[in-house]
Predict the structure.
Amino acid sequence: MMPQSAQQNTRSPAAQKAQHWTVAAVEALLATPFGDLIFRAQQVHRRHFAANEVQLSTLLSIKTGGCPEDCGYCPQAARYHTGVENEALMTVEEVVQAAHAAQEIGASRFCMGAAWRGPKQRDLEKVTRMVRAVKALGLETCATLGMLKDGQAEQLKEAGLDYYNHNLDADADFYGEIITTRGQGERLDTLEKVRAAGIHVCCGGIVGMGESRASRAGLIAQLANLDPYPESVPINNLVQVEGTPLYGTPKLDLFEFVRTVAAARITMPKAMVRLSAGREDMSSELQALCFLAGANSIFYGDKLLTTGNPEAERDRELFAKLGLKPMAIARKQDPGSRIPD
Ligand code: SAM
Ligand code: DTB
Ligand code: SF4
């Protein structure tokens, strides 16, 4: 059965705008019989997107390692001994070269990630040069640089940044068990700055960190209740890296991962839902289930930031088997309203 808050309602558009996904309603979605859940996710997906198109984003770590934060999943936190070295910020030329290579293999968006708590002004200026140069190639641009101070989002926007990735990562109650050096409220502040500067928001989270189903429902509800909800929603399955506190966490049941993707699709109908970290360990069949559940974006190219991702060739073979096509540069996305569908 459809949860109460997700049922079609007959209220005025203004009242609909205020509609809210309760944690209980998302939990009810997650508990739906698998076939019914996939069917519903497909219905929502096909209403808003070409059913067989998948958007391809390539990641590049422009500043690797040495991060002062304590995110319990992250191989780039200086305090954990993971073997990731602290490297300097890349040059603009190196970044453009990598972006060009990503474009050549078919990516439409290029995402630059930095292992910072947040960018210093001098570094931000260099990143704006990277954004300008990548944009000039004709790619969509995305950056994930940590927390932003007043005025920094505007500088990125002015340089041509299309998306800023900043994840909630975990639901508000579980968050404190994973990260203590940055509150979730600080993340919400950065997201507001990004929105106010007119940059599209890419915001999602990680599952498989030992959270409960209620906690996964809480994360999805929190994302869906952002007003407007994010244009891009990365759903990461924890990549367990030796040396991080979360290494050795019992693995999430993979049907539960698919259910989480479906819940993101149903609660955020117009968002690009990205099947993100963790794909390297997923079978073709599992990924196909994620696409059926409404995922319509992936990270493409053999590396995420510091860990592996499937080879581009393997993804092309999977796309050929499933009849999927890479999405061209996305049409201008409406910011998502909170209307369930
Ligand atoms: N330092 C910036 C920040 O934290 O906002 C940007 C880079 S950070 C690596 C971006 C995101 O990558 C994190 O918010 C987290 O969701 C994801 N991530 C990092 N390590 C991961 C892992 N081991 N498994 C899954 N996702 C991970
Ligand atoms: C996101 O949600 N996932 C990406 C991207 N945004 C920046 C990062 C995944 C990182 C996985 C671990 C690593 O490769 O270091
Ligand atoms: Fe630093 Fe980002 Fe890793 Fe957290 S997720 S430790 S902020 S690089």
